[in-house]
Amino acid sequence: MPWIQLKINTTGSHAEQLGDALIESGAVSVTFQDTHDNPVFEPLPGETLLWGDTDVIGLYDAETDMHEVVAILSGEPLLGHGFRHKIEQLEDKDWEREWMDNFHPMRFGQRLWICPSWRDVPDPNAVNVMLDPGLAFGTGTHPTTAMCLEWLDGLDLAGKTIIDFGCGSGILAIAALKLGAARAIGIDIDPQAIQASRDNASRNGVSDRLELYLPRDQPADLSADVVVANILAGPLRELAPLISELPKSGAHLGLSGILASQASHVAAAYQDKFQLDPIVEKEEWCRITGVRR
């Protein structure tokens, strides 16, 4: 199906209001794009991170009368008559195929591969996790997920119990099970993530070894040999007293979802109860690991 794209440049402080105006004018979706291609970091729940010079991009059905759209937007106080904009026709592509073509099998560490279902497995003898991109966070493409997968690949997980705190798609718990863990427990505040984890576990044949809980339902006495939490710096600090009690004595802890500028503050929240390793950084994101004292 062909589409028309309307692009307007504005400032970060005006972008959300302008995005709402585009939706009201008939846009089926709105995206914010950094004019200078600065990194965009994952926001906290409910937070929208914007930047200085911002392009607000509305996507319209190709049958839309764009003269009428521009006339409607000219009445917006932020824009006014004759506002600068760019209208483009987008090539009519098989967008589902285009999207699928962007995902390839990815290797993490020495043994582990994450493979979309429509691709051939590169190494049948490797540890292969079949995982398709979906609504829940965690496909291996983000540096935080990649660092956690590499860390898990380097651990001896044989017979161990792992807790995936903030499990999202279930990728970390499922990878741990396929790397030899005997049992995995996934916890997430989002019921959609619980369902995604359940579906992915079934696809990988590990459903019988994965337990999934919303926080209100989780057992009070949970403990594990390995605990991984790939969420965000704020929750990691706030929930440090809870997360710190999940690993057994001598158990491994892995934390990610942390920007380099936040790493020291997160580490400080855990250093009393854990012997921490040197912080690992990848593309401005960090991973903190350690062993429970």
From TrEMBL:
Subcellular location: Cytoplasm
Top-rank lineage group of the source organism: Bacteria
Enzyme class: transferase
Enzyme Commission number(s) from the entry: 2.1.1.-
GO MF terms held by the record: protein-lysine N-methyltransferase activity
Residues bound to S-adenosyl-L-methionine: T145, G166, D188, N230
Pfam families: PrmA
Keyword entries, A-Z: Cytoplasm, Methyltransferase, Ribonucleoprotein, Ribosomal protein, S-adenosyl-L-methionine, Transferase
CC per GO annotation: cytosol; ribosome
Reactions listed under catalytic activity: L-lysyl-[protein] + 3 S-adenosyl-L-methionine = N(6),N(6),N(6)-trimethyl-L-lysyl-[protein] + 3 S-adenosyl-L-homocysteine + 3 H(+)
Family, similarity comment: Belongs to the methyltransferase superfamily. PrmA family.
Described purpose of this protein according to its UniProt entry: Methylates ribosomal protein L11.
Protein name: Ribosomal protein L11 methyltransferase
Source organism per UniProt: Affinibrenneria salicis
Lineage: Bacteria, Pseudomonadati, Pseudomonadota, Gammaproteobacteria, Enterobacterales
